[in-house]
Design brief:
The complex is a heterodimer of chains A (about 250) and B (about 300). Chain A is an all-alpha fold. Chain A has 12 helices and no strands. In chain A, helix 2 packs across helix 3. The longest helix of chain A has about 35 residues. Chain B is of the alpha/beta class and about 300 residues long. Helix content of chain B is about 35%, strand content about 25%. The C terminus of chain B is likely disordered. Classes of the chains: A mainly alpha (about 250), B alpha/beta (about 300). Chains A and B meet through helix 1 and helix 5 of A and helix 2 of B.
């Protein structure tokens, strides 16, 4: 397994896009914090209490950070299919199960580490602009960070799985983005009277859950379960396809 | 390392692309893998590597490829000239492959130099020509000094000097006791390069033997003799049961050697002006064997299709 991980590390590291996307992911989050702090300062706003973590999720971390990190997940398999290098990869690592574990594992590790690094940087920036933000409410950060990271990981698994299933990076990236950013809201609006619909929508629930307050997204008792189930189903289907299909 | 492919088979829908192929690759020999377009050569190579799932199995010294820990040192494969990420440098591409067998960086630089890629080692392959792509693919294949090399059309796009180098390299590689399987359409090149030959057509095995015996089977191996009376010699040869015909310069006889033809001419009292053994080329023997098994037959000549405009 070590050699597979080493191969994957070199694969990720030697692509310029990995570095550019990673930098963008953290810089956009810091940029938003700075922007809001400057706007607050311009309006002579004085914070009366520290910033809670969940107040930043909607506009700092979701959707830009999630989507940017998921590009790395899509690239992991998408580049191989787009450039035909899957044949080089699988003739070098014919034990597909082991290789899949290493590749998916490294992507998930990346998603976890980068989410935590970004959250730490954002918290530091909030502390830096204390006059307008009131500093960071650290009690909310630990739970929020864990929940948010879990959402990022589930999202990355969905993107990776769709990329493998359709052997297409654009589908892997765009399908969840459209589904979670637009379709779920349309469904919610159309089924306003049916409470149960809101409880099974993956993204709405997961973001609501990560936001720690139940009221933020219009769904009480939001859980990550629908997104987890979706990630597991797609992950299982993608694993089967990766193991059984011709390269 | 002996390679045994047994009962390889693969269907795409109702079409049987590879049908029950069984052959052996012998260490120390270069084996040419020939077949018309669409005959299943590339599919066979993919089946051998486990890239495609199908019938049969390929054993490397009695083991499946998945049973080896350092596959890069067992099999090196080069299947296409463009199988790398266009934005990853040539050196990084090879470093990545080297990780499979924990090969040192020195080995990466060694194959880069061997393939003449030193000046472009840090360039991105998106700018590479097909020949450069072939070199990079070959560099990846030989990186782990594998016991078996499987190469699909490695000479495509290479300049004559590099083809010559490749031939010498592969022969030297095989001489170290390794197996080399090369698929190619360049029959003249293959004739110079390969010791053994595997021919398939429409997914089925047509021949698996030494190059010499394959060419020796061709009906085009004959003897041409020019004498003081070709018509008389023709009649004598035919009366003795040989297949003979008058050609531009003399009589062509098959199934006989030059010594026997010389004796017959002498006994007939004819003066011999020319006596030549004509050996069929690989191309002749190949076309003879596979002519009826072309999946994608061309029809007519350019002259005919263009109404003679080219003439």
């Amino acid at each position: 397994m070590m050699n597979e991980l080493k191969y994957e590390l070199i694969r990720m590291r030697t692509l310029r896009s990995t570095w550019i996307i990673s930098a963008l992911a953290i810089l956009q989050a810091l940029g938003f914090v700075t922007l809001f702090a400057l706007v607050g300062r311009g309006q002579n706003y004085v914070a009366t209490e520290p910033t809670r973590f969940e107040s930043m999720i909607g506009f700092i971390l979701v959707p830009f950070f999630v989507v940017l990190v998921s590009v790395i997940a899509a690239q992991a398999f998408g580049h191989d299919y787009r450039h035909g290098t899957i044949r080089v990869t699988l003739s070098t690592f014919p034990r597909r199960g082991r290789f899949l574990t290493a590749r998916a594992g490294l992507v998930i590790a990346y998603a976890v580490v980068w989410s935590l690094v970004t959250i730490a940087a954002v918290a530091a920036a909030v502390e830096l602009y204390r006059s307008t933000t009131g500093g960071m409410n650290m009690d909310t950060v630990y739970v929020g960070a864990a929940k948010f990271t879990a959402v990022v990981v589930m999202y990355c698994i969905i993107v990776m799985s769709l990329t493998v299933l359709f052997r297409s990076m654009p589908i892997g990236l765009v399908a969840p983005m459209i589904s979670f950013s637009f379709l779920e809201y349309i469904v919610l609006a159309l089924t306003y009277d049916w409470d149960w619909v809101g409880r099974v929508l993956p993204s709405t629930n997961a973001i609501g859950w990560a936001s720690t307050t139940d009221s933020g997204w219009g769904i009480e008792g939001a859980t990550p379960l629908p997104m987890l189930v979706l990630a597991m189903i797609l992950g299982a289907a993608a694993t089967t396809k990766f193991l059984k299909a011709d390269a | 390392m002996k390679v045994e492919a047994t009962g390889l088979g693969k269907s795409f829908g109702s079409r049987r692309a590879v049908d029950n192929l069984t052959f052996t690759l012998t260490p120390g020999r270069v084996t040419g893998f020939l077949g018309p377009n669409g005959s299943g050569k590339s599919t066979t190579l993919r089946l051998m590597l486990g890239l495609d799932h199908g019938d049969g199995e390929t054993l490397f010294d009695g083991q499946r490829l998945t049973e080896f820990d350092r596959v890069t040192t067992v099999v090196g494969a080069h299947l296409d000239a463009k199988l790398f990420h266009p934005q990853r440098t040539a050196r990084s591409h090879l470093r990545m492959l080297a990780a499979e067998a924990n090969l040192p960086m020195e080995r990466v630089d060694e194959v880069i130099a061997l393939m003449g890629l030193t000046s472009v080692a840090n360039s991105r392959p998106k700018t590479f020509s097909m020949g450069m792509g072939q070199r990079l693919g070959l560099a990846g294949a030989i990186l782990g000094k594998p016991e078996v090399l499987l190469l699909d059309e490695p000479a495509n796009g290479l300049d004559p000097a590099t083809i010559h180098w490749l031939r010498d390299f592969l022969r030297a590689y095989a001489a170290l006791g390794r197996c080399v399987l090369v698929s190619s359409h360049l029959l003249s090149e293959m004739e110079l390069m390969a010791d053994d030959i595997i021919v398939i057509a429409q997914g089925r095995l047509v021949a698996s033997e030494s190059m010499e015996s394959f060419i020796g089977r061709s009906s085009r191996n004959d003897v041409v003799v020019r004498t003081s009376d070709n018509a008389q010699l023709l009649a004598v040869l035919q009366s003795k049961g040989f297949s003979a015909a008058i050609e531009d310069t003399g009589v062509a006889v098959t199934g006989i050697d030059t010594d026997t033809v010389g004796h017959i001419a002498f006994e007939t009292g004819l003066r011999v002006f020319e006596l030549t053994a004509r050996r069929a080329s690989l191309e002749t023997a190949f076309l003879e064997l596979t002519d009826s098994a072309q999946d994608y037959q061309t029809s007519g000549s350019l002259d005919e299709s263009q109404g003679g405009a080219v003439a």
